[in-house]
Every structure is written in C-alpha cells, then in structure tokens.
Design a protein that fits this description.
Layout lengths: L7 H8 L8 H20 L4 H33 L1
Length: about 80
C-alpha cells in the first residue's frame, strides 16, 4: 500500500473545504432547498392510475411466481413418476 502522506487522492481530499469553514448563508440555502425537495416528494398525492400501477406490479410478480412454482412442481412430479 502507498504511504498516506504521498497519496495524491488523499492530498486532494485534504485541500477540500471542511463543513466548519463553509458559508453559513449557503448552508442555510442548501437546507431550505433540501427541505423543499423533501416536501415536494411527499406532499403530492398520486392519482388513481398511479396508485393502481403501483399495486399491479406486485400482483403480476406474485402471479408469475405462482405460475412458475406450479410448473416447477408439475415438472418435478412428472420426472419422479
């Protein structure tokens, strides 16, 4: 492994500004933007089509798994007999 003092990636990381030295106004702006994005993501109520679409995927997946299991059991039974 290389020496930590000569690693160029670690030196580049050391040159990055720390959180303590960042601008307070910029930090507040980032927090407001993050809170607004979080609120937008969870406040919008999806329509019926979107809700139905979310329910269809697990139902189809469960159906496919059920069909596959019935086929696998029938195939295994046919091989045994």
């Amino acid at each position: 492994m290389s020496d930590d003092k000569r690693d160029p990636l670690l030196e580049a990381l050391r040159e990055l500004p720390t959180l303590a030295s960042s601008d307070a106004a910029a930090e507040a702006r980032h927090q407001r933007q993050a809170r607004a994005a979080y609120a937008r993501a969870f406040e919008a109520r999806p329509g019926f089509a979107v809700s139905a679409g979310r329910a269809v995927v697990p139902l189809v997946l469960a159906g496919v798994v059920g069909i596959y299991l019935s086929w696998a059991i029938a195939a295994a039974t046919a091989l045994v007999h």
